Amino acid sequence: MLDDDDSWEPGPALDEDETGPVSVTAQADAKAGAKESPKPVYGDLESWLRKHLAQVIRRRFGGSLTWCSQWYRHGEAVSRLNAMWQEWEKAVVEGTMSSWWLYHCDPHLNVLMSKDSGPFMACKPGEHRQLEPMPLADSDPGLWLGTAFSDPRDPAPDRGTDAAAAAAWTASFPG
Question: How far apart are CA 121 and CA 71, in angstroms?
Answer without folding.
Answer: 12
